Amino acid sequence: MAPRPPLDDDDEPPMPKMAMDELEEALAKDPVIPTPTSKPATSSIDSVELRKLALEEMKFHLEERKELHKMEIEIRKVEQEERDKERDQHRQDREAASKEEKGNEHWLKSFWRPAMGWLYMGICFMDFIGFPLLTIFLPIIFKPFGLTMPYTAWKSLTLDNGGLIHIAFGAILGVAAFSRGAEKAAPAK
């Protein structure tokens, strides 16, 4: 390998080590390119020219790498778009299958959970809001008609027997919500 010539103050900054190594390999292989040691009088001129050539070559390699990188990025984008399309298609297929499966169910099987929820909500509303208000306002409403009835406070029917109906509905609706969540999560897996 040829030694590197010393730099003058007017010379360009030193090339990266990789570029110098490639340049030295090229000089060793090609006898036509003059080496800095072959002409001692013009060694600084030749070395500057060789550095410029090496810089141009490195610039070419950098641009080539940039283009390859851009192509790889485009390929990855296209692959990602294809994966997204496949994922969307798979999700649409699952939704269509679940709708078809749900369409084949009997109405009672598909609507018993909401029916139980509405029923429990109705029971709670009437036992804690509706009937107490009715017992408050019923004597007031009948008084103009000449009917007198004493006020009796409403006693909750659902809290008798230790509130067993609330425990039962809580268990039924809890298990129903859990099983429905498991049914929805199963096709996703």
Distance between the ends: 63 Å
Percentage of residues in helical conformation: over 70%
Characterize the overall form: rod-shaped
Count, helices: 4
How many β-strands, per DSSP?
0
Low-pLDDT runs of 5+ residues are 33-41
User: What is the ordering of alpha helices and beta strands?
Assistant: HHHH
Please state the average pLDDT score: 80
Instruction: Estimate nothing, just give the exact number of structural domains.
Output: 2
Q: Strand percentage, roughly?
A: under 5%
Radius of gyration: 44 Å
User: What does the largest sheet look like?
Assistant: none
User: What is the SS-derived class?
Assistant: mainly alpha
Task: Give an account of the 3D structure.
The protein is mostly helical and 189 residues long. It folds into 2 domains: 74 residues; 82 residues, no CATH class. It has 4 helices and no strands. Helix 1 packs across helix 2 and helix 3 runs antiparallel to helix 4. The longest helix has 62 residues. The protein is rod-shaped, with a radius of gyration of 44 Å. About 5% of the residues have low confidence.
Brief overview, please?
By secondary structure, this protein is mainly alpha-helical. The chain is built from 4 helices and no strands.
List the helices and strands and how they pair.
Layout lengths: L16 H13 L13 H62 L2 H36 L21 H25 L1
Helix pairs in contact: 1-2, 3-4
Keywords:
about 190 residues; mainly alpha; 2 domains; 4 helices; about 70% helix
